Automatic annotation (TrEMBL):
Signal peptide: none annotated. Residues 111-233 form the Alcohol dehydrogenase-like C-terminal domain. Pfam families: ADH_N, ADH_zinc_N. Keywords: Metal-binding, NAD, Oxidoreductase, Zinc. It comes from Hortaea werneckii (Black yeast). One of its GO terms (molecular function) is metal ion binding. InterPro entries: ADH-like_C, ADH-like_N, GroES-like_sf, NAD(P)-bd_dom_sf. Its cofactor is Zn(2+). GO terms for cellular component: cytoplasm. This is Enoyl reductase (ER) domain-containing protein. It comes from the Eukaryota. Gene3D superfamilies: Medium-chain alcohol dehydrogenases, catalytic domain (3.90.180.10), NAD(P)-binding Rossmann-like Domain (3.40.50.720). The keyword NAD applies. Belongs to the zinc-containing alcohol dehydrogenase family.
Length: 271
């Protein structure tokens, strides 16, 4: 959206600036996480749409430290998903310390997964798409995947090891049963990056100990992370597939989303 009002003391933002309101809605600047620059992990963080009102309206209030600067030439509907799904996978992958050319596998080809494949490939990793069946293979290859593994017909661990073992596997689909088998596909010091809240999962610690494997998560990002995700997407052609709904059809859009039907993000427009 566009800034329409700022307090008299505001120095960073002015009326007319293009702005976005991401998942991260604010931080206290005082806790240990904030002291380390991990503002989205603040002990007293605000979350837009959860602890603060979200964006299902013509106007929204944003805390200035968490507002995201959006390029004037960017299409709002294209940028909106990058403020949540986009920055989540972009920031998670780039914080895993992976060497360019290593294998990054992406489990799931939904909203998060189709962006993760694009970001990972453009970051310079050998990108492997993991999904059940062969129906999504062509789609995954068009997104930029170097390889595709049908995890329904194949042992995903064995197939990844044939490729050399993954430095990182990004988990985007909420299926706890895939976690343990995916560990078998990691190379030495490999990381299983979980981007979906799936609750307790069974994990075989033997390969973790023998190969220094780890299971970790990464919670989205703060304003600068979102701006980095947008800039990277603009530079390298990363694009989220969206379905647009006018604001007056917000309920229809919500029902569509809850039914798991969007390909791959539903976006409310103010047109």
């Amino acid at each position: 959206g566009t800034v329409v009002s700022v307090p008299p003391s505001e120095k960073k933002w002015k009326v007319g600036d293009r702005v976005g309101g991401p998942w991260h809605g604010g931080h206290d600047h005082n806790c240990r996480a904030c002291g380390r620059g991990l503002f989205q992990m603040c002990s007293n963080k605000a979350i837009n749409g959860v602890t603060r009102n979200g964006g299902y309206g013509q106007y929204a209030t944003l805390r200035t430290e968490a507002a995201v600067r959006v390029p004037k030439d960017a299409e709002p509907a294209d940028v909106a998903p990058l403020l949540c799904a986009g920055v989540t996978v972009f920031n998670g992958i780039r914080n895993m310390g992976i060497t360019a050319g290593d294998i990054v596998a992406v489990q799931g080809l939904g909203g998060l997964g189709h962006l993760a494949i694009q970001y990972a490939r453009k970051m310079g990793y050998r990108t492997v798409a993991l999904s059940r069946g062969t129906e999504k293979k062509d789609f995954a290859m068009k997104l930029g995947a170097n390889d595709y593994i049908d995890i329904k017909a194949n042992d995903v661990g064995e197939e990844l090891q044939k490729l050399g073992g993954a430095a990182c596997i990004v988990v985007t689909a909420p299926n706890p049963d895939v976690i343990s088998p995916l560990l078998n596909g990691l190379g030495p010091q490999g990381k299983l990056l979980v981007h979906t809240a799936i609750g307790p999962v069974p994990v075989n610690t033997v390969p973790m100990v023998l190969n220094a494997l780890s299971v970790c998560g990464w919670p989205s990002g703060h304003a600068q992370d979102s701006e980095d995700a947008i800039a990277f997407a603009q530079t390298h052609g990363v694009k989220c597939m969206i379905e647009k709904f006018p604001l007056e059809k917000a309920q229809e859009a919500m029902e569509h989303m809850l039914a798991g039907k969007p390909r791959f993000r539903a976006v409310l427009t103010m047109d």
